[in-house]
Amino acid sequence: MRRRNSIGIELTPLLDVILIILFLIITRNSAETERIAEEYEQSEQHHIENEARLEAELEDSRQQSADAENIISGYESFDEYSVIIAVGITRKSDGTRTVSVSENGDTSYISYGWDNLRYGENALKAELENMISSAGDRPVFISFSYDENDIYLRDHQLISSVLDDLGGDDIYIKYNTLT
User: Fold this and answer.
1) What is the pTM of this model?
2) What is the 3-class SS of 40-102, one letter each residue?
3) Mapping DSSP to helix (H, G, I), strand (E, B) and coil, where does residue 136 land?
4) Contact, 97 vs 91, CB < 8 A?
5) What stretch of H or E contains 16?
6) What is the pLDDT at residue 147?
7) Contact by Cβ (8 Å): 146, 176
8) Which of 31, 105, 135, 148 could form a disulfide with 83 if both were Cys (CB 3.0 to 4.6 A apart)?
9) DSSP 3-state assignment of 177?
């Protein structure tokens, strides 16, 4: 009989090392899975909170939109049953001034200088009287807006006297100082 020459390799320590490595991998994967699950839960909670906040903001926006529609409707009915005239003045570098008179998007311009103040006064009076007469029995609201740092006292007096002469039961005048 032949005898085989066998080299005895002990597999027990090698199996122990493999089992320890396998245990470490499983433990590490388990810890990693728990960490990922916690992050997912936190992100899910954050997503739910964001969704609730966005829904609240959307509801606020809807309410603001409804409020704006009500305001616009009010202005439209106000515009339908009244006449609103805006008067303004600008000063040019050459010393002339231009008075703008606007109603319903239509604007008229009256330019005058120191040498023709009477023309400016008469033209403004005629323009306003024309707009008031076309209002019929509707109330007229006149708003004179000016920058007190950019208007001459004489111009303010001229426009104020024209507006004061127009006074009536259905004519309302407001002076707006722009700053």
Assistant:
1) 0.58
2) HHHHHHHHHHHHHHHHHHHHHHHHHHHHHHHHHHHHHHHHHCCEEEEEEEEECCCCCEEEEEE
3) coil
4) yes
5) helix 12-80
6) 87
7) yes
8) 135
9) strand
* Range in 61-65, 144-148, 153-157, 164-168 with the lowest mean pLDDT: 164-168
Q: What are phi and psi of 8, to 5 degrees?
A: -85, 115
Q: Please give the Cα distance from 135 to 85 (Å, whole number).
A: 11
β-strand partners of 103: 85, 106
pLDDT tier for residue 179 given thresholds of 50, 70 and 90: low
Give all strands of the β-sheet with 106-112 in edge-to-edge order: 106-112, 97-103, 83-91, 140-147, 171-178
Give the separation between CA 97 and CA 46, rounded to whole angstroms: 61
Quick: pLDDT tens for 11-51. Answer: 778 788 888 888 888 888 888 888 898 999 898 899 999 99
Bridge partners, 140 (sequence order) = 83, 171
